[in-house]
Write a structure and sequence with these properties.
This protein is an alpha+beta fold. It has a domain at about 485-635: Aldehyde oxidase/xanthine dehydrogenase, molybdopterin binding domain (Aldehyde Oxidoreductase, domain 4), CATH 3.30.365. It is about 30% helix and about 25% strand. The chain contains 21 helices and 29 strands. A seven-stranded mixed β-sheet has the order 3-5-1-12-9-10-11, with helices on both faces. Helix 10 (about 335-345) packs parallel to helix 11, helix 11 runs parallel beside helix 20 (about 750-765) and helix 16 runs parallel beside helix 17 (about 550-580). The structure holds pterin cytosine dinucleotide (MCN). Pterin cytosine dinucleotide binds near residues 510 and 679. This is Xanthine dehydrogenase family protein molybdopterin-binding subunit. InterPro entries: Ald_Oxase/Xan_DH_a/b, Ald_Oxase/Xan_DH_a/b_sf, Ald_Oxase/xanthine_DH-like, AldOxase/xan_DH_MoCoBD1, AldOxase/xan_DH_MoCoBD2, AldOxase/xan_DH_Mopterin-bd_sf. Keywords: Molybdenum, Oxidoreductase.
Length: about 800
């Protein structure tokens, strides 16, 4: 079993390997997803999507579709535009003078990517709606597609937005120190260009919405598969021009979010408008093929990098330009993930002089948005590849280069080019990982395999992970058009049971269990006595960024801990009066408050609950108000940085170029762990997505701008057979500025994997001199790299 190098600072439920409260309902299929919502008289909708990447819409004739039996309404882009008050919001605006095109839920005059919505139909059922789509006649005047980054940047490139000077939406540079001098004085300069394919999160539950616009109350009631019900409500209000008190967003279980479902999409608006038109509930569920074009794509970037160093391996400067291959329209998070790639390019290293640029380039591809890791898998790949390349150049061990350049433990809080890193013991973590690799016998396994003629290699990477976004004011100043704080409500009811109301979403990451653990321990009640309610803007707190950027444990957990601790103080004051003891002399255990050392002098939480709501009968002191409820808004004073070291043992089939992962190890630190079982699962799941990203997944576009991968036959995600066994090691360096010391970790497994796998492959193929500069490492790419390596 895994070793906790340092025990968590809390004993009891925080830190306990508790099985997830969610599992029973999820594993037995008894839960509810959006598609399970069935309302009386409900219609079903379907969206007509553009078959061409770039064209003017000359006309749309929907008359035949409207006459089709069973069809209730058809809307076109122009009609939707007329029905809304504002274009779709872009909430991350880190480039001050960025050109932000007005994006509407359906294309208005022009389509700019294959799959862009053009019209939508509401009908008695989905099949009828799909039949009706075929009756809509759209006349397109096709324009030359801007299919690739190079096409978009070419001097004579056709422009996606004709009134822009070029296809560049904007650019910005993050400076620190004096790069010119660092490069002029460098002993070594290493340059490289890296490319990352388009990839996306592929939740098993596709996106879905059921909208009911009540014609009598003018209320919009929406069931939505989202990671952030509060954000969705706010953005619905903004686009539809209605006040948020008129909108309720409910989110049942989310069958995978992976970042995609943090973003806000046009389909939400379309469903609302169709419901308003028809006076009925409208369900709009994306099918798998649509999901491949209508869900946020991510990852695609080209990055030019130059690194300056002295001959002893000290990195003195880093220059990078991140070309974000954006789509035909900006998604909710705009250039946010690509800006983050630049902002975190120095990773765990203390580099005094940097110049990190990001250039956003529009192409005729699906819009760019969130996917687990949010830009960091690429910054990680770049800094780890550059460390290895530098090590090779100067003949030094890459681990020694890492150790030489790590931000040292006494330098925290450390000011990186953009963020303050709160705490970390990077060298200890690297050491832990290396020792575990040795103990696991990987070195012997590699030697033996090589002696047998098999190409086996070991690779490492070290990652940092930004978690717990905050404080909101600074985020706002940096360009985020939303808050980063979280609000949590903890209530003890009249039966003594506890309910936590949160703005977080349950998308499989175990947040209900983790928050219940924090509340139960803070109050001194049993875990079974705590229920965590998610996903309803009417009953859950009004504010919050929702679930994204690995923040539920740290920001949500921190808020729950504070609220529950305050609530416990009230409980102790009430119990103290009843038991005629001072609150300091009381202990709460398993739902009973008793006087320390005199266990028979006690009162149950149920009796205190009863006295606080119903039969006060002299038990509730006059100084105390009725009810037992606390609300806490937590806006962290700083982000929290988790980190980890990944090691991979891999075998390469030199005939076919197939990479097989034999073993996988992550040493990791996310501050106080609330639930080690969940944290392990999160690392496994995150690593599975890193493996997909490193070896298999690629959204392929042809030069004609057509997407060629719209099924799981073409877009290969790893299955259980491709996932190796995992070994995990934990450290716990607490975040001092977060109550409980929690840091987030939901994305760490995804961030660190790509570089480690790459290094393992290069190590396995050391005879070939392979240098990998793009992901994924598909067999044809690897065979080509092997041939190129041999030629050198
Ligand atoms: N946890 C803990 N102790 C800590 C940190 C985390 O016990 N110190 C546990 C908690 O149960 C927490 C979970 O691990 O809910 C993930 O931690 P956290 O870093 O707080 O991340 P969030 O809960 O905010 O989840 C979001 C994160 C992101 S951004 C994506 S994308 C993602 C992910 O988590 N998508 C997921 N994990 C996913 N897991 C599943 N099954 N499905 C997704 O869609």
């Amino acid at each position: 079993e895994d070793t906790l190098v340092e025990q968590n600072t809390h004993d009891g439920l925080i830190g306990a390997r508790v099985r997830r409260k969610e599992d029973l309902r999820l594993l037995t299929g008894r839960t509810q997803f959006v598609d399970d919502v069935a309302l009386s008289g409900m219609l079903e909708a379907a969206v007509l999507r553009s078959p061409v990447p770039h064209a003017r819409i000359l006309s749309i004739d929907a008359s035949e579709a409207l006459e089709h039996p069973g069809v209730y309404a058809v809307v076109t882009g122009a009609e939707v535009k007329a029905a809304v008050s504002a274009p779709q919001p872009v909430i991350w605006r880190m480039i001050p003078d960025q050109l932000i095109p007005d994006g509407y839920p359906l294309a208005v005059d022009k389509v700019r990517y294959v799959g862009q919505g053009v019209a939508a139909v509401a009908a008695k059922d989905r099949a009828t709606a799909e039949d009706a789509l075929e009756l809509i006649d759209v006349e397109y005047e096709e324009l030359p597609p801007v299919a690739t980054l190079e096409d978009a940047l070419a001097e004579d490139a056709p422009k996606l937005y004709e009134d822009w000077p070029s296809n560049v939406s904007g650019s910005t540079t993050i400076p620190k120190g004096d790069v010119a001098t660092a490069f002029a004085d460098a002993d070594v300069v290493v340059s490289e260009t890296f490319r990352f394919a388009r990839q996306m999160g592929t939740p098993l539950e596709t996106r879905g919405v059921v909208a009911t616009w009540d014609p009598y109350t003018d209320q919009l009631d929406m069931w939505l598969s989202t990671q952030s019900p509060n954000l969705a409500r706010d953005l619905l209000g903004e686009v539809l021009g209605i006040s948020v008190d008129k909108i309720r967003v409910r989110t049942p279980d989310v069958g995978g979010g992976f970042g995609n479902k943090f973003d806000f999409y046009g389909e939400e608006i379309v469903a609302a408008i169709l419901s308003r038109r028809t006076g009925r509930s409208v369900k709009l569920i994306e099918d798998r093929m649509e999901s491949f074009v209508a869900n946020a794509h991510s990852r695609e970037q080209k990055i030019d990098v130059e690194l300056a160093a002295t001959s002893d391996g000290t990195i003195t400067g880093l220059k990078a330009t991140v070309y974000a291959v954006l789509g035909g329209q900006l998604g909710t998070v705009g250039i946010g993930p690509c800006w983050t790639t630049a902002a975190l390019m120095t990773g765990p290293y203390d580099i005094a002089n940097v110049e990190l640029s990001v250039v956003g380039v529009m192409t005729n591809r699906s819009p760019y948005g969130s996917y687990r890791g949010w830009g960091q898998p690429k910054s990680n790949f770049v800094h780890e590849r550059m460390v290895e390349l530098l090590a090779q150049r100067i003949g030094m061990d890459a681990q020694d280069v890492r150790l030489k350049n790590f931000v040292p433990p006494d330098a925290f809080p450390y000011g990186s080019p953009v963020f303050f890193y709160d705490s970390g013991r990077y060298a200890d973590c690297l050491d832990l990982c290396r020792k575990s690799v040795e103990q696991a016998g990987w070195l012997e396994r590699r030697d033996k395999a090589r002696a047998d003629g098999t190409a086996v290699g070991i690779g490492y990477s070290f990652h940092v992970e930004i978690t717990a976004f905050g404080p909101s004011r600074i985020l706002n100043m940096a360009g985020l058009q939303h808050s980063g704080f979280d609000e949590e409500v903890v209530r003890i009811d009249s039966t003594g049971r506890v309910t936590v109301y949160t703005g977080q979403s349950a998308m499989g990451q175990g947040v209900q269990t983790a928050l219940a653990q924090v509340a139960a321990q803070s109050l001194g009640v049993a875990l079974d006595d705590v229920t965590v309610v998610v996903g309803d803007t009417d009953t859950c707190p009004y504010t919050g960024y929702g679930t994204g950027a690995s923040r539920a444990a740290a920001v949500g957990g921190g808020a729950v801990l504070t609220a529950a601790t305050r609530l416990k103080e009230k409980v102790l004051r009430i119990a103290g009066q009843v038991l005629e003891a001072s609150p300091e002399d009381l202990v709460v255990e398993d739902g009973r408050v008793s006087v320390a050392g005199a266990p028979d002098k006690s009162i149950s939480m149920a009796e205190i609950g009863d006295a606080s709501y119903r039969r006060m009968n002299g038990l509730l002191p006059e100084s105390e108000s009725p009810t037992l409820e606390e609300r806490e808004v937590f806006d962290p004073a700083n982000v929290a940085f988790s980190y980890g070291c990944t090691a991979v043992l891999t075998e390469v089939d030199t005939e076919t170029g197939e990479v097989r992962l034999l073993d996988y190890l992550i040493a990791h630190d996310c501050g106080t762990v609330i639930n080690p079982l969940i944290v392990d699962g999160q690392l496994h799941g995150g690593a599975a997505q890193a493996i997909g990203g490193a070896l298999y997944e690629e959204l392929v576009y042809g030069d004609d701008g057509q997407i060629q991968t719209t099924t799981f036959m073409d877009y290969l995600i790893p299955t259980a057979s491709e996932i190796p066994p995992f070994k995990l090691e934990h450290m716990a360096t607490v975040a001092d500025h977060i109550p409980g010391g929690f840091k987030g970790m939901g994305e760490g497994g995804t961030i660190g994997g790509g570089a480690a796998i790459t290094h393992a492959v290069e190590d396995a193929l050391s005879d070939y001199g392979v240098s990998i500069t793009s992901l994924p490492i598909t067999p044809p790419r690897l065979l080509a790299a092997m041939r190129a390596g041999k030629d050198n």
